């Protein structure tokens, strides 16, 4: 399903990989370091202030409200110029002195995609942005403070890029769809499978990306929450994402699919939202007035612009067959509340006649234009530079030492220890050790970035990172063709790896296995959750050769979860570490955890299923809840089977003990009902009570603990989640230290979505839970 628009975004029909992904694979040549930016390229998409030298009146008058300036802009622009401004490749508008502008830029986990005049994304001569861990990895930190720091750092670099003319000012990130199925190729871009985690990440990232301390009332850059809504399929079950109709029960929509977007808009104040390719219950999202206007602007108070996903307007007609012609499609999409076509549908040539013939109302297009130009004005694109503190950001603010350190810290906090039998980790011996690194990821660089990653100045490979600790590092791929690992019968790769592992000089073996962007990415879903090719065979033969005489540790690089029961249930692999895609400092972070400089504190943000799950559940089935007829439900909140590893699992080199402190007081139904009505939605839900958690470090070394506060509904509640995350925090404790953390319990934490998607209070005994510790909380009707 590659349209004429998208063909330009792909490398070749034989290798349909979006260019940002491909470029990230070209960047790290043996982790070659770049000492400086060298000679930065000239601006290739420069923006010049349309109001420079103009009289301060109308849309050029910064003393007027944004609303009045936007209104004057729409009244001042000529008809022909107006037609140029409704696609992502907006052209010059001489009547209002506006230069061309490209709306589409990316900043998922670092500035990753910007454009030049020839439409090549992030050319290799481009300056290097900091490549932070993929979102799926950073989110495993369960650290809201870290989310804020990442948002701010990426926002600073994004504005610096824009000021230098190397990008636009509008960035289409983050991706806050829930990771409902591990086979989804883009799940790696999201925080995880939990609605509350995604909601907190969305609001925190967006707020800190968009707004800076220099001027909290002005946009530094614009952020976009995507993909609204129920988008989490690329190409599965014979269905492509461009024509997929996501059939979602209202109950699931309310408590699983919508919370992150509501939080992004209501708490994060996102200035843009992207409507997704899919239909929602029969209505294409980019033509869904109920969602884009009634819900987004009406209920949530959204003030920004709505862009389509790229090509989605065309697909309303060509793939969904929802409309029959150009005017009908324009009315369906812009009339629903969309403002910008990322594509080639709402071009001047296609708008001109329908507008002249009154087939498309000019007032509708004017509304869209006001939304677009209002965001540009909020950024300061129509104001003098001397009035903008963010205009000072430049090359010295890109890929700084501070941002490099933050990238390392994010990777360190996200890496998750799954298994550590016999306390084999951290490795002991340090500089006296010889370590064998085996597997297709042992020399990885750019593969640790994940998708939507731009060029990094330097990427630390596992070999480089571990070399800083061990006396000697030896390595062998074990696979002929990388991650795919389809070794032929004549291949000697596995035997060479086995011989290395058996070498008497080797003190420890570390296997580096997993996935990469050839297997999971935009446009590509997996068929199952098994390990690729002969990776398991490689691991087992290496472990068998060692025969317990030296530790064998397995490190996994991947976005989506894998069935790793083979390793969990085997004594041959005493330690397992999940590293996700840890970014430019990934090799260093992994080494720091292996050798104990860092005490691991990550927790899984997705459920690890056995592969049988993929035979029970179709990717295209959007239901979250089990049906009692063989459909087991999705995610830790509803899945009725036994996972390999649960959401929230993660170990440390020390031991923590948590105790919930609550006075056991009851919460009245009337108070709860009033709070629900006042809150309208989960994002700004009122607090009805509080709970405290005491955390004690029972071990002899310092470490950080992620406190995950769960709520379990009353046993009599029907179609309810088994439990759901309602709050989290991360605390650092010295050995034997005790810390107390207080959490707010909101009205929506004690309510359930009914089958119509309405939040209703639920009486009965609820249970607060942290780990294995529980505490009752009773909801009672007032007497």
What does this molecule look like?
It is a single chain. This protein has 783 residues and is α/β, with parallel strands linked by helices. Helix content is 27%, strand content 18%. The protein contains 22 helices and 29 strands. It has a six-stranded mixed beta sheet. Strand 28 and strand 29 (773-780) form a beta hairpin. Helix 10 crosses helix 11 and helix 14 packs across helix 19 (586-594). The longest helix has 20 residues, at 144-163. It is globular. The N and C termini lie far apart (61 Å). The model is unreliable at 1-38 and 115-125 (pLDDT under 50).
Overview in brief:
This protein has 22 helices and 29 strands.
Structural class: alpha/beta
Beta percentage is: 15-25%
Q: How much helical structure, as a percent, in the residues?
A: 25-40%
Can you tell me the overall shape? Answer: globular
Count of alpha/pi helices: 22
The biggest sheet amounts to: 6 strands, mixed
Q: Order of strands across the widest beta sheet? A: 14-19-18-17-15-16
Task: Compute the number of strand runs.
Answer: 29
Give the averaged pLDDT, no decimals: 91
Regions with pLDDT < 50 over 5+ consecutive residues?
Answer: 1-38, 115-125
Give the termini separation. 61 Å
């Amino acid at each position: 399903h590659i349209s004429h628009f998208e063909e330009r975004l792909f490398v070749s029909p034989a290798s349909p990989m979006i260019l940002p992904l491909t470029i990230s694979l070209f960047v790290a040549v043996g982790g070659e370091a770049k000492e400086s930016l060298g000679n930065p390229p000239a601006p290739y998409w420069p923006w010049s202030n349309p109001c420079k030298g103009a009289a301060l009146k109308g849309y050029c008058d910064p003393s007027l409200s944004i609303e009045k300036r936007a209104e004057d802009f729409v009244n001042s622009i000529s008809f022909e110029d107006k037609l140029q401004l409704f696609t992502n490749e907006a052209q010059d508008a001489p009547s209002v002195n506006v230069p061309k502008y490209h709306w589409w830029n990316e900043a998922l986990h670092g500035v990753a995609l910007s454009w030049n005049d020839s439409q090549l994304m992030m050319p290799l001569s481009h300056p290097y942005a900091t490549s932070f861990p993929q979102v799926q990895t950073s989110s495993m930190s369960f650290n809201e403070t870290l989310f804020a720091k990442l948002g701010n750092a990426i926002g600073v670099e994004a504005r610096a890029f824009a000021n230098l003319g190397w990008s636009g000012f509008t960035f289409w990130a983050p991706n806050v769809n829930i990771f409902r199925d591990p086979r989804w190729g883009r799940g790696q871009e999201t925080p995880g499978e939990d609605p509350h985690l995604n909601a907190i990440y969305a609001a925190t990232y967006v707020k800190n990306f968009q707004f800076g301390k220099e001027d909290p009332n002005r946009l530094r850059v614009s952020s976009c929450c995507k993909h609204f809504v129920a988008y989490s399929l690329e190409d599965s079950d014979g269905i492509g994402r461009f024509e997929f109709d996501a059939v979602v029960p209202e109950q699931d929509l309310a408590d699983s699919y919508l919370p992150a977007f509501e939080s992004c808009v209501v708490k994060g104040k996102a200035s843009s939202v992207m409507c997704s390719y899919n239909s929602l219950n029969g209505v294409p999202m980019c033509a869904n007035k109920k969602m884009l206007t009634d819900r987004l602007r009406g209920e949530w108070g959204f003030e920004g612009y709505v862009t389509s996903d790229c090509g989605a307007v065309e697909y309303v007609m060509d793939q969904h067959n929802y409309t029959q012609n150009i005017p009908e499609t324009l009315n369906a999409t812009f009339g629903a509340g969309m403002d910008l076509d990322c594509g080639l549908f709402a071009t001047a040539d296609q708008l001109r006649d329908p507008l002249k013939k009154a087939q498309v109302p000019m007032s509708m297009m004017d509304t869209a234009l006001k939304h677009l130009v209002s965001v540009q004005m909020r950024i300061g694109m129509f104001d003098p530079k001397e009035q903008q503190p963010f205009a000072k950001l430049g090359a010295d603010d890109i890929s700084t030492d501070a941002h490099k350190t933050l990238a390392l810290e994010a990777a360190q906090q996200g890496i998750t220890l799954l298994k550590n039998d016999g306390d084999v980790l951290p490795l002991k011996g340090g500089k006296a050790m010889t370590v064998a690194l085996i597997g297709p990821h042992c020399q990885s660089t750019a593969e640790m970035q994940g998708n939507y990653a731009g060029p990094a100045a330097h990427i630390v490979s596992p070999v480089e990172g571990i070399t800083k600790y061990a006396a000697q590092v030896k390595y062998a791929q074990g696979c002929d063709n990388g991650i795919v690992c389809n070794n032929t019968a004549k291949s000697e790769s596995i035997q060479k790896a086995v011989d290395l592992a058996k070498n008497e000089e080797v003190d420890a073996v570390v296997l580096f296995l997993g996935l990469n962007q050839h297997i999971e990415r935009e446009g590509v879903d997996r068929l199952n959750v098994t390990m690729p090719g002969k990776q398991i065979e490689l691991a087992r033969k290496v472990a068998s050769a060692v025969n317990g005489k030296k530790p064998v540790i397995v490190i996994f690089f991947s976005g989506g979860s894998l069935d790793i029961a083979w390793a969990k249930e085997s004594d041959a692999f005493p330690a397992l570490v999940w590293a996700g895609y840890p970014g430019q400092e990934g090799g260093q972070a992994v080494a720091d955890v292996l050798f104990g400089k860092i005490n691991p504190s990550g927790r899984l943000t997705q459920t690890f299923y056995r592969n049988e799950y993929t035979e029970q559940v179709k990717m295209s089935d959007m239901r979250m809840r089990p049906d009692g007829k063989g459909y087991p439900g999705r995610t830790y909140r509803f899945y009725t089977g036994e996972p390999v590893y649960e959401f929230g699992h993660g170990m440390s080199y020390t031991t923590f003990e948590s105790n919930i402190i609550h006075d056991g007081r009851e919460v009245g139904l009337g108070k709860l009902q009033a709070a629900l009505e006042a809150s309208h939605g989960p994002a700004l839900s009122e607090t009805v009570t509080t709970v405290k958690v005491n955390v004690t470090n029972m071990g002899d070394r310092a470490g950080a603990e992620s406190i995950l506060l769960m709520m379990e509904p009353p046993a009599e509640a029907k179609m309810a989640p088994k439990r759901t995350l309602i709050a989290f925090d991360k605390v650092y404790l010295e050995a034997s230290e005790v810390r107390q953390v207080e959490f707010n319990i909101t009205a929506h934490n004690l309510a359930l979505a009914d089958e119509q998607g309405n939040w209703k209070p639920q009486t009965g005994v609820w249970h607060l839970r942290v780990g294995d510790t529980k505490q009752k909380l009773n909801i009672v009707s007032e007497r």
